[in-house]
Task: structure prediction
Amino acid sequence: METFAFDRCCAEADFGTVSGKFNKALHSTNTAPNLSNRGIRDITQIFKSMNFEYSRTHDWALWNSGQRVVDTHFVFPLMHLDPGDPENYYFDPTDEMIRITQEAGSKVFYRLGTSIEHSGLRPEQKHFNSVPPKDYGKYAEVLAGIIRHYTKGWANGFHYDMEYWEIWKESENDPTCWKGSYEEFIKFFVIVLKRLKSEFPELKIGGPAATGYREDLIGPLLAACKDAGVAPDFITWHSYECMPDSLIGQPARMKEFVKAQGFPDCELGVTEWHYLVSWDGIQRNMSEENRRLALDSQGGLCGIDSAVYNLSVLCGWQDTELDFGFYYGANPVGDWGYMNHFGGFNKNYFSMCMFGTLLGTFENKIKSQKLDSNVYLQGGVSDDGKTGMLLVADYRSDVMSRQVKVSGMDGAFVTAQLLDHTHSLTEVNVSFKNGVLTLPKNAVGSAAFLIKFDKR
Result:
């Protein structure tokens, strides 16, 4: 009789033990169904296939060319006018984008303020939308009008279930986001937060969407909130890196930090994240060869390492205290999107489909354990325990196969799909014998498997 050594397994999955429910808000994005060119190519079905729980409105204006959407300067273009008069707002295209996004199955997380403004970094270069408001109090009244329109029906508006509202983003970064000091932003944040919470105590309002995990930025902001007697409902930051354990470990550190600052009930969110090795070829040193490597190589922004990094992070986050995460995933086409300029899907698209399939099929999360530093996994099981699904991400390893110890699925019929450098959700044969699942790879390096179990 053939035997297997469990000590060679890279992970364990127990389909007989439910460890909780999946947190679907961790699988969210910054993109949405398009408004511009919708009559030529509507990406709604592509968007739906990734099954995102939330869509954050950041940068919607940048990839919907010619549309005045979301950003405060588009919705309320003339700041000298009265924010109490509905006639001074222009809601129509934003109304439509929010409608089609919700109809595509995703809730809306609204970023208040402006999209990033790439008009130049040098001090003498002009910026327009990222210039801090002259009157913080009046600007807060404008933001209240926007929220009131979408949640209270004001200005011929709606009563949408739009719970989350984020104040600005990356205000400490450079003039592309906030052309002012961070100290000025803290004053602005506190004034806006206090005003909005006074009218909308039932909603969740927070920020600051910091450029990275930055306790040195979050600490002073929380201290100012405490002095003003107001509490943000959530704290957010961004991450562009390539080591899964670093990003997976950030929520626990941030939770302890905000508790120590006196905000134990504050939710946590990463509202932008993406695999990134280097900015070379993307925003600097953009030679033709650097750009090709930065985007389309196995280790590039749109390659297999990026895709398996995505799955590694999404798997790992399910066992953390993070409340929501938004993949960036903004423009559907191009460097940060899911498609190339010829309409083909990149590897990131297939990774999001894999995780979306897992979350869309099962509510129950099984008990699992990774035993190898390169491997990340999550599994789901039906209420009756007869069907299950396991996602295994093998990030940058130097082995040609993986073995997973599986319990609770004896006698099940097994099918699997493979995502690697040359395969995109391709059906492959795997072995499941004596409680050990063997997953053969085609090459060393990053690969991911989505395995289905059926013992009905």
Remarks:
- The mean pLDDT is 96.
